[in-house]
Amino acid sequence: MLFVAVTLYFLLACLVSWLLLFPSGRALVLQALAGTGNRLKRGWRAAAQRESRRLDAIGNTSGASLREAGAFIRRHYLLCLGGALLLGVPPLIALTSGKHAQLSGFEESSREVNTQVATLLEGEQLVPPPALPPLAFASAEVQKERPMIASASRDWALLNAAYQQRLLHVFRIMKEQHGYEMAILEGYRSPQRQDALAAMGPGVTNAAAFQSWHQYGLAADCAFVRNGRIVISEKDPWAMRGYQLYGEVAESLGLTWGGRWKMMDLGHTELRVPGVMKR
């Protein structure tokens, strides 16, 4: 269909160029149009007279008119072709371009995604990874970066199902495509624990109970695992590169990344579900 439209548009462009560049062409067209008008007038007048005189010969008159029209088209086929192009090309282009625009819009709304994201959209259910030993979260380095993290919940089952699957796909992409193994530092957080963390000051959190997506199982704080050890420090270039990749992958799956906030929380992601949190 697009090929036909392009061909017709090319022919129309050639005709218009011919008319614009060659005065003799314009004169020929004007002369043909004038002659056509006169012939049509004479034909209509003759047809009206014949019809009034011979009502019983309508069929013969129609046949004669068709033959006359056919003869006219054969004598002036270029003029007729140009008129057909002028009348037919605009609607044809509008139809074909409209269909193409719809397809283009669909392709743009379905941005190119990697295979992990495609399988997520198709509904594949991933299984949480094996839990790290509690001692991995009790080291002095981890406690310095995240106080009270040893007692935090890392139970995947307490997370919202939609958020859980998105986060598992983030972990999978980070490991398979970027070589970063990840672990949850804290997932679901009780209202009491949220208030306790808020009491430690804005350096820890500004959110009180039920002001954080953690209370709804829709948020988690995550970090990287290197040689069996939890790596959180933002001073580690390897970890900082990982946080940047982590944010990009999480956002590609529709999650909100804490690295965009004024008070950055690089390991934090959340799934904001409308109507869940009353702010």
What does this structure look like?
With 279 residues, this protein is α+β, with helices and mostly antiparallel strands. The chain has helices at 2-21, 23-53, 58-75, 77-109, 115-122, 140-145, 161-178, 191-198, 237-252; strands spanning 181-186, 219-226, 229-231, 256-257, 268-270. Helix 7 (161-178) packs across helix 9 (237-252). The longest helix is centred in the middle third of the chain and has 33 residues, at 77-109. Residues 97-113 have low confidence and may be disordered.
Key phrases:
279 residues, alpha+beta, 8% strand
**Percent helix range:** 55-70%
Task: Note poorly predicted spans.
Answer: 97-113
Shape: rod-shaped
User: Largest sheet at a glance?
Assistant: 5 strands, antiparallel
Strand content: 5-15%
Number of helices: 9
pLDDT averaged residue by residue:
79
Q: How many beta-strand segments? A: 5
- N- to C-terminal separation? 54 Å
